[in-house]
Design a protein that fits this description.
The protein is an alpha+beta fold. The protein is built from 13 helices and twelve strands. The site of flavin-adenine dinucleotide has 32 residues, from strand 2, helix 6, helix 7 and strand 8.
Length: 340
């Protein structure tokens, strides 16, 4: 399928990219690695007047760790650079696991961390050819006023399927955002809108430039597990990111954050499940109670919607399995395996 025509700009500085976005007044699209955007363009999911590549902005391509400040990741760092970074594997094993489970090596080498976090939402009723889309009544994402997946929904329920966000959010990551007017730093819970139609709160003239993760103490562990049809290539159909701090041999939980991804328009924190685990020693009984609570917390038609290639009831049930495995991985309760 041919690309639509558009103007192309190769920005070499953050200021240049921001200035172009500003001038284009919402008609410009940022291009990271292009592994997702090129498909959106081919299928006319987006038809911008101009595409601004940021892949030549050297100052956006880094992964750095300092004991005092933690991990900082430039938006143009490739996904593979996370997989190859020994500090990420050692100190943020959940992030390593999420990165390693993305697509295939070719996608990870070209796809950027920023692009992954700014992915558009997907839905089987929307991610179709233009011909198919236009044969149906426009849904919310196409500017209409209905949701084909769940007609009683009052808004778009397309799913954000990025793998990195749930575990980054569990680890307490922040996003640094640039525009012509300056920079701002936000929590990822404020970065995502929770709306399928436009999944993040970036303004039309803003670029995600950096992801910041706090330093991990030696007692912090993390893990990520995803559900997908094949062992490679596939986007998550559900995912669980866990960051947990424990003390003592009986794994007494001092703090825990759990985010479920690929269920709805943004990763969701499983707060009531965290409450089951906090200030308890993780044994089989507590683990079972936590996974049952997670199942209850994922409400069909609300937290999880039937709009991907696997039924929502199955995806909901699999949250129990993913959570159990993620906690077991994090606390080394069984031999760790890369994202499965
Ligand atoms: C075969 C295949 C398998 C895949 N499997 C997975 C998977 O398992 N898990 C997964 O999470 N993803 C998967 N992906 C999706 C995607 O390739 C990756 O998420 C990748 O990281 C996207 O990065 P990119 O740099 O290529 O983004 P691009 O395609 O360049 O951009 C994606 C979107 O983000 C915007 N954008 C990019 N960078 C920025 C920025 N810095 N600031 C603001 N907006 C920005 C673009 O305008 C565009 O809307 C897969 C893709 C393919 C083709």
């Amino acid at each position: 399928m041919k690309l639509p025509s558009f103007e192309y700009f190769g920005a070499t500085t953050i200021e240049e990219a921001c200035s172009l976005l500003h001038k284009l007044k919402g008609n410009g699209k940022i291009l990271g690695g292009g592994t997702a955007l090129v498909n959106y363009l081919r299928h006319r999911v987006v038809v911008p007047r101009a595409v601004i590549s940021i892949s030549r902005i050297r100052e956006l391509d880094y992964v750095r760790y300092e004991e005092t400040t933690g991990l900082t990741i430039g938006a143009c760092a490739s996904i593979e650079s996370l997989v190859r970074n020994p500090t990420v594997a050692e100190k943020y094993p959940g992030l390593y696991s999420a990165a390693k489970g993305i697509g295939v090596p070719a996608v990870r080498n070209i796809g950027t961390v920023g692009g992954n976090l700014c992915l558009d939402t997907r839905c089987i009723y929307f991610n179709q050819s233009r011909f198919w889309r236009e044969a149906h009544m426009p849904c919310f994402k196409r500017g209409g006023s209905l949701c084909h997946a769940h007609p009683s929904n009052k808004g778009c329920q397309a799913v954000y399927q990025g793998d990195l966000a749930p575990v980054l959010m569990a680890l307490g990551a922040q996003a640094r955002i640039a525009s012509l007017g300056g920079q701002r730093v936000v929590e990822f819970s404020d970065f995502f809108s929770g709306e399928g139609k436009i999944p993040n709160r970036l303004r039309f003239d803003e670029i995600l430039i950096e992801i910041k993760l706090p330093s991990t103490g030696c007692d912090q562990k993390s893990a990520y597990r995803k559900l997908r049809i094949r062992e490679a290539i596939d986007f998550p159909l559900a995912g669980i990111g866990v960051a947990i701090k424990t003390e003592g041999q009986r794994q007494f939980v001092k703090s825990v954050r759990i985010f479920a991804g690929a269920l709805g328009p943004a990763p969701v924190e499983l707060i009531r499940t965290e409450e089951v685990l906090i200030e308890k020693s993780v044994d089989e009984e507590v683990l079972q109670e936590a996974v049952e609570q997670a199942y209850l917390e994922i409400e069909p038609g609300k937290t999880v919607v039937d709009n991907l290639c696997m039924p929502m009831y199955y995806r909901r049930r699999m949250i129990k399995v993913l959570l159990r495995r993620a906690i077991e991985d994090a606390l080394s309760l069984r031999p760790s395996k890369d994202a499965a």
